Amino acid sequence: MHWRIFFATVICVNGIHASGILYPRPSESRETLTLDGIWKFAIANRTEQNKGFKDKWYAAPLHHNVEVIDMPVPSSYNDITQDANIRDHIGWAWYQRDFFLPKSWKSQQVSIRFGSVNYYAVVWINGVEVTNHSGGYLPFEVKITEHLKFGHLNWITVAVNNTLTPWTIPQGKIVYHNDSQRYPAGYYEQQYNFDFFNFAGIHRPVILSATPKTYIDDITINTTSVTDSLGVIFYSVELGGSKIAAYSVIAEIYDAQHRLVAQAKGLKGEISINNPNLWWPRGMNESVGYLYTLKIQLWNDAKNVEGDIYRLPFGVRFIEWNSTGVYINGKSVYFKGFGRHEDAILRGRGLDLVTLTKDYNLMRWIEANSFRTSHYPYSEELMDLADQQGFLVIDEVPAVGLDNFDDELLEAHMQTLKELVQRDKNRPAVVMWSIGNEPQSQKQVSAHYFDTIVKLVHRLDSSRPVTLVLNKPSSQDVAAQFLDVICINRYFGWYSDTGHSELITYQMIKEVTAWHEKHLKPVVVTEYGAGALAGLHTDPPVVWTEDYQVVLMEQNFKAFDQLREMGYLIGEMIWNFADFATPQEYFRPTGCMKGVFTRERQPKFAAHFLRRRYAQLT
Ligand code: BDP
Q1: Which of 74, 311, 448, 593 is the one with CA 20 to 30 A from 227?
Q2: Distance between Cα 195 and ligand 1 center (Å)
Q3: Ligand 1 binding pocket includes 489 (Cβ within 6 Å)
Q4: Alpha helical stretches, state H, 309-406
Q5: Can you give the pLDDT at residue 367?
Q6: Signal sequence: where (predicted)?
Q7: Is CATH 1.10.3470.10 what the domain over 213-314 is classified as, yes or no?
Q8: What percent of the chain has pLDDT over 70?
């Protein structure tokens, strides 16, 4: 058997998102209906992975074909039951539920949108396949009007497959064990090149939305210049539907008090805002995270009636970068923040508004100003709060630990970046795109690969710098030459010279200096840290204690202070914000314990120590 068998029935549709992926927001012309809630669920048997397709589980109520259990959406399915087979499942899982539609939607165009499904998804409405998507952390949407029934029950079925291969982003492989002394015939496991648990399922909201038949498909907004007295923005709108020519476009800008401050007509153009309230990140100005609203309205001139309306929040802020740093509205930025995970107890990677809100409260308490979406795009609900609360975000795709660089992988990687930029291009919080984490960037073939990727991202969005998070020695790496900003992960005193905290300051200074001298580019240390079991103490400190975690931080801070003074370093992000789930390993006691908060979001001593530092860093 070959790994491809697992998703033999999936045809990967590249370019599915050439069109817009605006978040479904109700307006005078738009309505939404959530399909979140309890769905019916079953996993496919390990030895009969394709049975659901063969027996058409999507064509009838799921319980007619297989024993079902209840499964909350959104959530990962892994930690919901007592069953280790479900936790560790590899391959197809099936979800199904029913729904009714309001009659008023009959004359509208109806779409369904998934915030994210990890990794492959196939979707059927009333037994008809309507779309499929590959890539676990980004939204996809499809129009389903013609497949819907009004006045009758509708059925939706989703098949989800979490198998990772050498050509998925991130990569993984299915390994068959042929040693019959140790493994029964046909035994296989999923292996992957990263340490976070590969949670699976319908992870983010499922939303039905109704829009007029001629509709606003996409909006792009960019700040082109700012001064104290004038902010200039450029907007453009894409329309969808059959009668586009009958409509004209009105663009209006409202301030946070809902006052109209500027307007324009047409599909695209420049709009000037007098005395703008700029969008500032935390700690750089008294005004933080100021958002305007761009209201786009269609108008049917012949009939003199209004058409579709969409309201998009946006910030007026301008990014520049050069060899010395990244600048927001002309002021240089120092990133003080975190590498993180979307990882919630029981929900796994499923959207959890409680954990999400608590995390922002903790990040504000500790006086951080930034985070990286390590190692995949986070939910739109989470990103909305970054915009509102003025956090700087390094927005990363799930290209973690890449170790071969062929054209098929390049294609998948580019598709992920297109989808990420399409989703997040209008967010003021996003100040840098990260094209991946810790690739084998010492391999010569990766040079052409990353050159191609960086050029693509610059083409997709020229308004933000591009980075890649590196962990190979600067003398061997071939990717940094293409980047605007260099990000590095370094675990001195932990993965190397374990326990030798006296070497950390020296090694970190040498390391960052080497990168800067080779490339003359600003450097962010995006990961450093030590595992610490909450409550474990020794003196003198040894690894795994809270005491050693703090000593390691202290030694890194000494290096950061000097490097900042030298003008090399523009940020420090500790690994990790909170402890998180990993696959089972004898060196990971239930997870990665490098959090400054526990997985329950309680502070380790490190959190208090970090808070003192972040409070004094400006
Ligand atoms: C780094 C990875 C990160 C891991 C960390 C660790 O980027 O995802 O969690 O190591 O091992 O190399 O703690």
Answers
A1: 311
A2: 7
A3: yes
A4: 353-365, 380-389
A5: 98
A6: 1-18
A7: no
A8: 97
